[in-house]
Amino acid sequence: MICNNLSVRDNTLCFAGRSTVELIEKYGSPVYLMDEDRIRENCRTYLGAMREAFGENALPLYAGKAACFKRMYEIIGEEGMGADVVSVGEIHTAYLAGFPMKNTYFHSNNKTDADILCAMEHGVGRFVVDNEEELFAIDRIAGERGIRQKVLLRLTPGIDPHTYEAVATGKVDSKFGSAIETGQAEQITRTALSCKSIHLAGFHCHVGSQVFDSEVFLRAGEIMLTFIADMIRHIGSVEELDLGGGYGVRYKESDPFIDIAANIRQVADHLRTVASRLGIDLPAIRMEPGRSIVADAGMTLYTVGTIKRIPGYKNYVSVDGGMTDNPRYALYRSPYTIMIANKAAEPCNFICTVAGRCCESGDLLQENVALPATVSRGDILAVLTTGAYNYAMSSNYNRIPRLPIVMLRKSDTGDGRGIDYLAVRRETPEDVTRNDI
Ligand SMILES: *Cc1c(COP(=O)(O)O)cnc(C)c1O
To answer: For the chain, how many structural domains are there in total?
Structure first.
């Protein structure tokens, strides 16, 4: 099993110790499941490792874009995490959940004046500023409100996360941030210091996603610290350095394990050495995990419908969901592990494509999947590790109502029983037509 919250009992796939067959009977099909205890464990891994390695002023920020709904912000708030927000919708969700807004960091490469105003009205703690134009807009709006807005400047350190090389081109040409390489990072730093209503609190970088090697963070951190050392005589001191998100998760048995706590310790050791060589203090460190907080806490259950065998070509197994609840295979061929949840102990030798129900031939959940040869209409199909970027990227294409999110956790009494509850209810056809005039 790719994660230890999965098990098989009486030929049935269990998640967080619970029978998936019983859960789909109770909540209907298709459905997202989320393991609350696993989300909390993942938060604690970051919180514990970062505080130990970087000191008590370190803070992991959950990147809400991975899975954003009110209950998520309640959980990460209780755990003591901060949060990245990227839109007025995410800001509103965090606010409604009672999340401490001073611990939110507002990202985006194109914040409109209305976004900026909304974020200030909600008391967002920091703006992560992408470019000069945006900096001027924040300065102007903060000035009108009579405040000094704390900001981090987003820089591109010029690292390609999948070769681990610092490159002069490549990531420098990203749509995000100001490149150190081209001098634009220095330029925006000077500008920020000259803005009356801007408080420059530090710098940010984010090198990529599905990163399995701490080398990426070592190199990025070193480049950022070197830049900070160059700038420090202008700035005085730098309060925060945000290293971004991106640690990888296991979607397939063949994906490597990653020891996040050990990786963080390695990054900390390296950055301390670099800071002392440069003769600067290490700023308070931020990281922004999204996927690695929620991915393995999620699973999607579907019901099998049509099974189509095209002799000499291929086999299709169609389910009652698809690209509307998980567009990631259609978008970028993302790998997933798929099982028949009610035949979880049976040998798998029927090779097929798992297709969704949308009117779109690209609507596939996965190709070359091995399922039991007995797969038939009414079986329950489970896609594992769907906690990140599934609900968050879901749509109403074909006017298909969105799925509910069912949370699972162990009972507080320690009797070993599980608790299940709805965090997001299933959309109805009325929800889908709500905004039609
Ligand atoms: C997407 C993103 C993250 C989170 O990335 P994960 O791969 O989900 O950990 C963090 N920070 C920024 C700026 C991002 O764009």
So the answer is: 2
Q: How far is the CA of 24 from the centre of ligand 1 (A)?
A: 31
Euclidean distance between CA atoms 329 and 306, whole angstroms: 20
- pLDDT tens-place string over residues 15-69: 999 999 999 999 999 999 999 999 999 999 999 999 999 999 999 999 999 999 9
Ligand 1 site, CB within 6 A = 63, 65-66, 84, 107, 206, 209, 244-246, 288-292
How many angstroms separate the CA atoms of 406 and 36, rounded? 10
Residues 252 and 235 in one domain: yes
Tell me if 1 is assigned to some domain: no
Give the other-Cβ count within 10 Å of 337's Cβ: 20
Radius of gyration of the chain (CA): 23
Query: Do 336 and 289 fall within a single domain?
Result: no
Q: Are residues 239 and 274 in the same domain?
A: yes
Query: Would 437 be classed as within a structural domain?
Result: no
Pocket test for ligand 1, best of 61, 65, 216 (most atoms within 8 A of CB): 65
Select which of 14, 68, 358, 359 is catalytic: 359
What is the extent of the structural domain holding 29?
6-35+295-432
106 and 204 together in one domain: yes
- How many CB atoms are closer than 10 A to CB 395? 12
Atom of ligand 1 nearest to the CA of 208: 7
